[in-house]
Amino acid sequence: MKTLCLLLLAVALPSWADPLLLYPRHSRDSDPEAYVAELLQLAVDHAPQHYQLQPTSEPMAQSRAQQMLEQHSPHLQVMWAMTTREREQRLLPIRIPIYKGLIGWRINLQRPQDAQRLSQVDELADLQSLRFGQRHDWPDTPLLRANGLRVVTSPSYPGLFAMLHAGRFDAFPREVVTVWQEQAQAARDGLELSVDEHIVLHYPTAFYFFTSRQDTQLAEHLRLGLEAAIADGSFERLFQHHHGATLRRARLEQRRVIELKNPELPAETPFERQQLWYRPEATSNDKE
């Protein structure tokens, strides 16, 4: 009996011993980044070391999450965010773009009464009379300003939708992969917003997983897990499962593309690995 108990303990011990991997909870509502949490689980499933994934007990601002990783806090081990040169100096990036570059393709939320305003836009200069909403600690804020656009900020992610509804700014550029989900959540909150059908803002960027610079082993495990998921096709299957229908709905190849510069783009961004990036023209060509 004693031997049997020891055997059972030995079988159970690896799951108990798996290190905890805490990541920042986005919000208490419907999570627009559920895909990222599933991708993180996929990376862990393919990694040489097993981890137990768990979100933080409370929603956490991006700036707070970065601060905790910089301090090598035991209460957070990984976050995801748009890359910048400064962020890559402070944190350790896993340079595999989570959204395959789609984080740099932005479709605007707007008020229904303004639905035709963006139909008149042909170039960047046509946007300079408008006010764009962003969170104060998002990298998009200085990026939009560097391109000559006016930005109204808020410390509250949910508050930005209420501000747009109230006319505090004119448009809210959102990731193509989340814009309709966010519109639906706003509607459930009693806010009537519409998704622009005419233009798409584009700037070169990537959304990565980041760890503390002290967690080199964790970063390498996540990198190896993501590479293995790319190799066996499970990364692409998860991407298409979450975003395939949205990308067809977005019709990026049929919109007017307004190109923005990204002065904070790190030189190490792996654009040479074409399989890591989504190209709208590839979808268009497949139909021809």
Secondary-structure map with pairings?
Blueprint: H1 2-17, E1 20-25, H2 34-46, E2 52-59, H3 62-70, E3 78-82, H4 85-90, E4 92-94, E5 105-110, E6 131-135, H5 140-146, E7 150-154, H6 157-165, E8 172-175, H7 179-188, E9 194-195, E10 199-202, E11 207-211, H8 216-231, H9 234-250, E12 256-259, H10 280-287
Written description of the protein model:
This protein is α/β, with parallel strands linked by helices and 288 residues long. It folds into 2 domains: 169 residues, Periplasmic binding protein-like II (D-Maltodextrin-Binding Protein, domain 2, 3-Layer(aba) Sandwich); 99 residues, D-Maltodextrin-Binding Protein, domain 2. Strands 5, 8, 9, 10 and 12 form a 5-stranded mixed β-sheet that branches. It has a 3-stranded antiparallel β-sheet with strand order 3-11-4, sandwiched between helices. It has a two-stranded parallel sheet with strand order 1-2. Helix 2 crosses helix 8 and helix 2 runs antiparallel to helix 9. The C terminus is likely disordered.
